[in-house]
Amino acid sequence: MAGPWTFALCGLLAATLVRATLSPAAVLSLSPEVIEGKLTQKLKDHDAVDILWRLPLLSTMREKPAGGNPILGSLVTFLMKYIIWLKVTSANILQLQIQPSADGQELVVKVPLDMAAGFNMPLVKSIVEMHMETEAQAIIRVETSERGGTLVLRNCSNSQGSLRLSLLRRFSFLVNSLADKVMSFLLPTLPTLVKSQLCPVIEAAFEDMREDLLRLVRVPISLSSGHLQFDLLSPAIKHDVIQLHLQAELSDSQGKVTKWFNESAVSLTMPTPEGEPFSLTIRQDVVNAAVATLVPPEELMVLLDYVLPELALRLKSSIKVINEKAADQLGPTQIVKIVTQETPELLLDQGRAKVAQLIVLEVFATSEVRRPFFTLGIEASSEAQFYTKGDQLTLNLNEISANRIHLMNSGIGLFDPELLKDITAEMLTSALLPNENGKLSSGIPVSMVKALGFEAASCSLTNDALVVTPASS
């Protein structure tokens, strides 16, 4: 039976976990620039401008004359009888604006509209045209439910104080007076039409954009023998940036999930915003798992005298210091066996990257013998450099350092393995490193770079994450 100390300890651990800030596997941050561009395209796809061209100005004015004022309503009804037609003659949606709300928890979407409308009456020989400026406004917010959070667009309407009407050309006093009356009747009509005709299109365009973004983050990232795939955990709004907090899963070549990455106490340092259109910040353990998939544990057998003859001579000289008789036994078919015990571990620190590996190295006098001269356990590390080419992210390992060497067993007598430190590092750099870099050279495609409208990616490191951004032109 568990004692009181057990329950107290469990309670303390639970409280600590609750207080801990959990980090997502990755965060995709989207700037107003990206949201504006995506939403603008979706409005085009939904023919929003055509909706403006077809606004039923005349019929709406007749249905709700003068905003319900009975006196003006009668005047509008009388005047409407003499208007032959009243139509939009040109329409444009100007540059969208995405701005943070006062509390920084929502985004205000402004859709400026620039239109012209004309009407004709029997008493007027030419068409009277008016310039109409107004603005639709909506709010992007995060709504939570039992299934999690989602981005929604709400409160779409005509922005207060944004409506301006003016004549494009002045006529006689009588015509100008009639035109002024028509414009005054349009003032309550346009906001009604914006809300009833345009707002549903804006809402549908936003929903399409949201679904596109979700499809974008879910596109599998191809690795050499599997895939890395992200999915949405929850969205957030930070000042003027939309953040998509992501989970991830790693699957093998058969599609079987081998590892999950959910929210974790593992730290994730977000980069300081510097006006980047977007950034994808990937937690260190996720990057590490992707690298491990590209470079699985392996075993190399190297005929050192044939492949690296100079190193073979240096190895013989080093062994001669330890055991001269053993050195004389080294033949032209001498073999160096290199076994990587585990997948490489990526370590990030102060914007730099290292890869640590556990390696077993054995030296055989000839290809015929079964017993090695000795077996060394090596704690090795390499400087690592991430770079990009187009939308491909690639890792390259530089010179391998043998940080610690342990003599695991020896058939030539006990010796200090530090005597072989330099030659061991050179053999790993010459034999193992090209093999690992060859596997890493295939790179990792980051398809969302081009999907978001950019040609190439750039990358940087924080203390605990890899950050992908668009390359500067």
TrEMBL record:
Signal peptide: 1-20
GO biological process, alphabetically ordered: innate immune response in mucosa; negative regulation of toll-like receptor 4 signaling pathway
InterPro entries: Bactericidal_perm-incr_a/b_dom, Bpifb1, Lipid-bd_serum_glycop_C, Lipid-bd_serum_glycop_N
Superkingdom, taxonomy of origin: Eukaryota
GO CC annotation: extracellular exosome
Keywords, in A-Z order: Signal
Domain Lipid-binding serum glycoprotein N-terminal: 35-258
Keyword Signal: yes
Protein name in the entry: BPI fold containing family B member 1
